[in-house]
Design brief:
The complex is a heterodimer of chains A (424) and B (173). Chain A has 424 residues and is α/β, with parallel strands linked by helices. Helix content of chain A is 38%, strand content 17%. In chain A, 54% of the residues are buried.
């Protein structure tokens, strides 16, 4: 992880009260099937939302809704203020120089599509190369394949080591004067690998490539400082960071955004429209065609304020403790193979158990109230590299407890029993 | 990091009282199913099949290739290749044991009955023609897994449809 200086007030942080955190997430007290307590270990797919986010969205919908940037009446002004206030909160969360460097999108996927389509579509040509890694989520692969097909550019994949980290030699080997874009994940959704983003960005810049970081799994968990990372684009999603679905953001420096052509055309994104042609609104509005997801943005803004109030450093410490516990407990499980790095890893645990298929594991855990994800995690090139068709994945967040990890381990014992052993 | 004195009990601790296996799981993962999963019947490549198809389930990545040799209108030999969960692989393994000797239409009709069994039609539990496929009846309590149990049968249905289309075209000529 990039070393960001600790804010002074964090040095004397009070003890992390996970019970008090959990009390803010009503869904965590759900009971399922035959009265099993929900154990939610799927936050890498989507995180749960605290009351204050739900209430903020409710207040917007009940009291403040109108269309934004039309300004002709009080509600419109209030909605616009709430929407732009959320932009400011999100900008502050990732250390943007100004709120206008944040473009609201539908999420990480749309953020990457926006860059691939607008920047890539206007700048790439035959012979140009786009460098990705085998850790990437499909959303950081397919948009590049689409633009490559359109422009004649080609997509290359840096290999990873057996330990699940980017193979720096292979990355360097593939990086060259033809490399125009380097797009890499900050934290792998499949393995929990934390990429040395700053170093990779530095190398990419040395050949003049533009860099995009997929921050979907990092932004929820770590203090992000886009200036310190040195990248050109940073993409992330609200719903993985305690906010609503259908909203996310793209950060980019103003100069780059200004040079890029619009992504979609429509209302909100124009300056003037005549029968002969149109001119574009200023950034970021140039990239926000149509009426935006206003309540989503408002909820997103509240979510990043919530995370900031809990404290990213405190969340990180809590997750480190959970990770240590999980690694120790999972190692004790007979027949369990854990994928990904041992050190420098996020609280995402991808594993197989004997010859039990990941979907069978997920079903057996589910009936005990334990929610995990199974399958390829939108990581098919990674699964191919690991030589597996899929894995079971448990992912943790600020509201998870060591007891829930213990419940998972007990649940895995039940799975082994159902299958009459783990084929060891 | 967890505060044991916090007022809200940490879910996961108290609420899972025992390791009792939920009965729905025992009825889903019956021994005969696990046996077909671990020792699949008729798995392998069929030389010179008259019919073959590969289908996958993009959501979970399960994949099955079904290969048939149809002789005189009846299925003489059937093999499959594939990978996936115990339900999809056991179901296709059982399929290979039930369709030999039938016409494609008869085999597909058996598949229709199997599908009704998966949808919870209990009278089919006494349908001896379904054989060990009846062990998969527990899937009915797991709606998201029904598509797993049907993957091999979807292959068969598609092959039957194509065969029908081919002979229809032949009739026209």
């Amino acid at each position: 992880m990039e070393a960001t200086p600790l804010p002074a007030q964090m040095t004397a942080a009070p003890a992390y009260d996970v019970g008090a955190i959990r009390a803010q997430f009503p869904i965590l007290s759900r009971r399922l099937y035959d009265d099993r307590q929900l154990v939610y270990l799927d936050s890498a797919a989507s995180a749960q939302r605290p009351l204050r986010v739900l209430e903020r969205i409710g207040r917007y919908e009940r009291e403040q809704h109108a269309n934004v940037h039309r300004g002709a009446h009080a509600l419109s002004a209030e909605a616009t203020e709430a929407y732009e206030d959320a932009r400011e909160a999100v900008a502050g969360y990732v250390g943007a120089a100004e709120p206008d460097e944040i473009v609201f999108t539908r999420g990480t996927t749309e953020s990457i599509n926006l860059v691939a389509s607008s920047w890539g579509g206007s700048r790439l040509g035959p012979g140009d190369e786009i460098l990705l890694t085998k850790l990437e989520h499909h959303s950081n692969i397919v948009p590049w394949q689409l633009v490559a097909e359109r422009t004649g550019a080609s997509v290359r994949f840096a290999d990873i080591t057996d330990g699940g980290v980017v193979d720096l030699d292979d990355f360097d080997r593939l990086l060259g004067p033809r490399t125009r874009v380097v797009a890499i994940t900050h934290i792998s959704n499949g393995l929990g690998t934390i990429n040395p983003v700053r170093r990779l960005v530095e190398r990419a810049r040395s050949v003049g490539a533009v860099t995009l970081i997929d921050g979907a799994q990092a932004a929820p968990h770590r203090e992000i400082d886009v200036a310190a990372l040195g990248c050109d684009f940073y993409a992330f999603s609200s719903h993985k960071m305690c906010g609503p679905t259908g909203i996310g953001a793209l950060w980019a420096r103003r100069e780059i955004l200004e040079e890029m052509p619009p992504y979609q055309g429509g209302g909100e994104m124009i300056s003037t429209v005549t029968v002969d042609g149109s001119t574009w609104a200023k950034v970021p509005h140039k990239f926000e065609a149509g009426t935006p997801n206003i309540s989503g943005a408002v909820g997103f803004g509240e979510a990043v304020r919530f995370l900031h109030d809990v404290g990213l450093e405190a969340i990180h410490e809590h997750e480190l403790a959970l990770t240590r516990h999980a690694l120790a407990r999972l190692r004790e499980v007979p027949g369990l193979t854990l994928f990904g790095p041992v050190e420098e890893r996020a609280a995402v645990f991808s594993f197989t158990l004997g010859d039990i298929h990941s979907h069978d594991l997920a079903t057996i855990l589910d009936r005990q109230g334990i929610a995990i994800r199974a399958g390829h995690h939108c990581n098919q090139p990674l699964m191919d590299r690991l030589g597996v068709s899929g894995t079971a994945r448990a992912s943790l967040y600020l509201y998870n407890t060591v007891e829930e990890i213990d419940a998972l381990v007990e649940g895995l014992a039940v799975a082994a029993e159902v299958f009459g052993g783990t084929g060891e | 990091m967890t505060d044991p004195t916090s007022k809200t009990p940490a879910p996961g601790k108290a609420p899972i009282p025992d390791r009792a296996i939920p009965s729905s799981l025992n009825s889903l993962y019956q021994e005969v199913i696990l046996d077909h999963y671990r020792r699949p019947r008729n798995k392998g490549v069929l030389d010179e099949p008259t019919h073959s198809i590969t289908m996958n389930n993009p959501l979970c990545g399960d994949v099955i290739e079904l290969m048939l040799r149809v002789d005189d209108g009846r299925i003489a030999e059937v093999r499959f290749e594939g990978r996936g969960c115990s339900i999809s692989q056991a179901s296709v393994s059982m399929l290979t044991g039930r369709v030999a000797g039938r016409t494609l239409e008869e085999a597909t009709e058996l598949g229709q009955r199997f599908m009704r069994l998966l949808r919870g039609e209990e009278t089919l539990l006494t349908d001896a023609d379904l054989g060990d496929l009846r062990a998969l009846a527990g899937v009915s309590k797991f709606p998201v897994r029904i598509k797993c149990a049907l993957l091999g049968w979807n292959c068969l249905e598609e092959l039957t449809d194509r065969d029908g289309a081919k002979s229809d075209a032949g009739d026209v000529e």
